[in-house]
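Class, carefully examine what follows:
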Amino acid sequence: MKRIFNYTAMFLIGGILASCATSAVTGRKYLSLVNESQLNDQAALAYKEFLSSSETKVITGTSNATMVKRVGNSIASATNRFLQERGVADQYDFNWEFNLVQSDEVNAWCMPGGKVAVYSGIIPITGNEAGLATVMGHEIAHAIEKHSVAQASNQIALQLGAQVLGAASSTTNNRAVSAINQLYGIGAPLGMLKFSRNDELAADKAGLIIMAMAGYDPNEAVKFWERMSSAKSGQAPAEFLSTHPSDVRRISQLQSYIPEAMKYYKK
């Protein structure tokens, strides 16, 4: 039994190490155990269902809705250009879509494959197009850096690790679907929150570069997060219990990223 355990553990560790990949912008290593085409398909389906839900009101025909699409398309063009320059465009399959959604929630997100939603509640805080570019660049950076792939893969690795004492099983489609559903469901357990905080900071850095390439001043990102910090009501949760870094840490890190981002900035 001990020998079987050792062989199984070696097999799993070897498979996981062989499945490590490198992000395009920040160069971070991440685990890639899921079928990205499947992930994109599921995201596209979830996005379509979200937009068609009776609880979702998509805003069209307004200046803000037009701005969301304009800024989104600028960020998308910069993203495509950046990936082509890095020679990694073939590793991505973005089918961009940008929508402004009626909601008081201060939020925005980008699903794998480039499906973006901006909530109207965040528009007053963005202040201007550069502020909106900060938000959309950050969310799109999560997709560029393949954070959803990494998080789903981490869940698969944890599932497999829990089964080392039993029979080793391969990463089937059903396992990937389960991990993806958990990722978009109740979220990761507390032990995985550190990955999310690191992902947030990586998305800040990548987002700065992308917004700069799109013609938006990276310095506006600091101003946006200062406005965001001031707009928060109540006491923010302790950083170690949050999936996001503290405002102070985030702003400090952004300021350290700006010199590099400015190399890509052209008015």
Remarks:
- The radius of gyration is 19 Å.
